[in-house]
Amino acid sequence: MSVSTATVPAGPVYPPKARRLVIILVAMLGTIMTMIDATIANVALPHVRATFGVTQEQINWVLTSFVVSTAVVVPATGFLEQVLGRKWLFAGSLIGFTLSSALAGLAWNLDVLIVSRILQGLTGAAIAPMAQAILYDNNPPEERVRAMTIWSMGVIIAPVLGPPLGGWITENYSWRWVFYINVPIGIAGAIGALLFIPLPKHERYTFDGFGYGLIVIGLTAIQLMLDRGSQLDWFDSNEIWAELAIGVAALWMFLIHTMTAKAPLIPRRVFTDRNFVLACLFTAANSGALMAISALLAPMLQGLYNYGTTDAGLLMMPRGVAMAFSMMTAGWMMKRFGPRFLILLGIIFSASGLYLLTGISPDMDSRLFIMSGAVQGVGLGWFFLAINIMGFATLAPELRTYGASMLALARSYSGSVLIAVFTADFAANVQINHAEISAQADPTILQLLTSGLIDQFGIRGADYVGLIDLVVNKQALTIAYINAYYAMMWITLAGLPLVIFARLPKTMVGAPPQVEAH
User: Fold this and answer.
1) Which region, left, alpha or beta, applies to residue 58 given φ > 0 means left and ψ of -120 to 50 means alpha?
2) 307-341: per-residue pLDDT in tens?
3) Which helix (DSSP H) or strand (DSSP E) does residue 246 occupy?
4) Could you give the angle at the alpha carbon of 323 between the alpha carbons of 23 and 162, nearest 5°?
5) What is the pLDDT of residues 483-496, one digit of tens each?
6) What is d(CA 295, CA 309) in angstroms, rounded to the nearest whole number?
7) What residues does each domain of the chain span?
8) Of 252, 267, 442, 496, which has the fewest Cβ atoms less than 10 A away?
9) Do 347 and 383 touch, CB atoms closer than 8 A?
10) In the CATH scheme, what is the homologous superfamily, with its name and number, of domain 273-518?
11) DSSP codes joined into one string, 166-201
């Protein structure tokens, strides 16, 4: 008599615990390295500018070229993973990022530095999304909460820690070491990826080259318009009009193509999930504001308040420390109040930190900077972890890889756009403020110029006109910074009404999304 036996499908096989720990370390090395690189050069820009003798508009390309090139590759991450395999894509990206970082450190002129930053963005774009997939794919469900927390802390806190780290390196060594520091980290990460990350089976899919070309052209043209607008007097220039037309036309064609193509670059169902679309909007507004703050705070602390490079970086550090603390408490709070409440609370705290910054004055100590950074950091930590919950709560499992790529695109490109917008607006605002304040100046102001003020500005003799101009410049800069922080605050608060449209199933409350690898 024969006995029939049912075959039980084999479940996923996970690496041993020790190997999983190494994989977590390798994945986080790559994530932190690339995310820090988006902001670590901020406080070093004045030194780079002095080395090459270029204008402020030219030096801004060191930041925006990296972010734009990252945004260009992110939409193709899913296809690249299917073609190359996750292990080879991750290791190859680390190797390419390491080599381009070395080139950035060796740069002998601004053009070489910008090219190397473009290469950094192109090679590093897939590292963070791949790291997230690697952490989930190689950890059993009961350990994915920890993996999610580790990855989220790296993605959110690393850009905040970039300025203080960059300041310390620049002041104690050279701005070139801001890039050289990536070389040993990248080598260690690439070796670890090749030795320890498994090579899962994967299928190859058709690549939507037409759609990819449209989104690359559209994003690049819009970014060029934003970066070159202030140099070319905006819409008085034919080039700006051409870039705007090309960008809008390409993005509109991409939208139509996505709605009608048989196999678009990003599946249409991704954009029909209301929670995910809201998460993208929230991420774009808050991540963009966070990166714009980093770009404005460093030159403000150094130029307006005369802090050294290291001190300026340290004054920006409370934001990162507060974010780490709030993210550790976010899980407990979500279990009791739900992600929606945490998003609301995060927005309010983040906006409150920006509101505190609007209270700056030309002569003040560092307490306001520390307090505003801490308040904003607490809010951002709660907000971003809860947004990850909301974004993937109702998204189909087979769409989560595409969703992660779109969130990464929203995070990186919004930062690039807002940096360009606020930089251009700030420069124009300073000129307007200077003209208006100068028009109000009259000889009676000379009565306010005591010997103490003269000593403070380092001026001797009767050069009162020059002294008045220094005072006017400082006031014009202060007002321009205040206006920028007000604008960022309103951008952050604009998302508050959208929270009511979120629909979160109860089973997802308090549990991070389990993004599966496909």
Assistant:
1) alpha
2) 876 777 778 778 878 887 887 787 777 777 777 88
3) helix 238-260
4) 70
5) 889 988 998 888 88
6) 14
7) 14-203, 209-264, 273-518
8) 442
9) yes
10) MFS general substrate transporter like domains (1.20.1250.20)
11) HHHHHHHT-TTHHHHTHHHHHHHHHHHHHHHS----
Q: How far apart are CA 279 and CA 498, in angstroms?
A: 10
Give the Cα separation of 60 and 44 in Å (integer). Answer: 12
Q: Which residue is listed with tokens 């318009």?
A: 225
Stated as kind and residue range, the H or E segment containing 223 is: helix 209-228
Residue type, 171: E
Q: What sign for the dihedral angle of Cα 227, 230, 233, 234?
A: positive
Tell me the range of 148-157, 259-268, 371-380, 389-398 where mean pLDDT is highest: 371-380
Q: Fold for domain 14-203?
A: Growth Hormone; Chain: A; (1.20.1250)
Predicted pLDDT at 508: 46
What pLDDT score was predicted for residue 164?
73
Q: Considering the entire predicted model, what is its pTM? A: 0.74
Burial of 250 per CB tally in 10 Å (0-12, 13-18, 19+): buried
Structure tokens at 112: 């070489």
